[in-house]
Design a protein that fits this description.
Layout (H helix, E strand, L loop, with lengths): L1 H4 L1 H11 L6 E5 L5 E4 L9 E4 L13 H7 L59
Antiparallel strand pairs: 1-2, 2-3
Length: 129
C-alpha cells in the first residue's frame, strides 16, 4: 500500500483513519463521502467509505444505495434502479440525531389512570388556643 500511495499519502491516511488502504475511487454520494474498492485487501475489507467529515462521522451518513454496495448486496456501483420509496419513508435521507438536539423524543398522548400523590401541609394548631 505504501508503494501505491506514496509515503506522504500513506502517512496522511494512517493518521486520519488508523489504516492506510489503497484502492480505486468508485464514486461519491450526495453527502460528499467517497467510496473505494480494492481486490488486494483482505476479503471482507475490499470496500470502504471515506467520510467527508472524517473527524465527526456516523454510519447513518451513508446513502442506502451505497450501503447496499458496501455490504455487497449489489455488485455495480451504478444505481440504475433506485430503491422503491414507501410513503412512510422520508424523501431525503438525514443522519441520525441521537444524542443531539435533533433527537426523536416521544411524548405521551394518553390520560394517566392514576394521579400522583401530592400532600398539602396542614397548619399546626398553636398551644395557646
Amino acid at each position: 500500500n505504501m508503494r501505491q500511495l506514496g509515503i506522504g499519502q500513506w502517512l496522511k491516511n494512517f493518521a486520519r483513519f488508523d489504516d492506510a488502504k489503497a484502492g480505486t475511487l468508485v464514486g461519491k454520494d450526495q453527502f460528499g463521502n467517497e467510496y473505494y474498492e480494492s481486490e488486494s485487501e483482505m476479503q471482507p475489507r475490499t470496500r470502504w467509505v471515506v467520510y467527508k467529515n472524517y473527524k465527526d462521522y456516523d454510519a447513518s451518513q451513508v446513502a442506502p444505495e451505497w450501503d447496499m454496495w458496501l455490504k455487497k448486496t449489489t455488485q455495480e456501483p451504478h444505481f440504475e434502479q433506485h430503491l422503491h420509496a414507501h410513503k412512510f419513508m422520508p424523501s431525503q435521507q438525514t443522519e441520525n440525531g441521537t444524542g443531539t438536539s435533533r433527537a426523536f423524543v416521544t411524548y405521551d398522548t394518553t390520560v394517566p389512570k392514576y394521579a400522583s400523590w401530592n400532600p398539602q401541609p396542614r397548619a399546626i394548631p398553636s398551644k395557646g388556643s
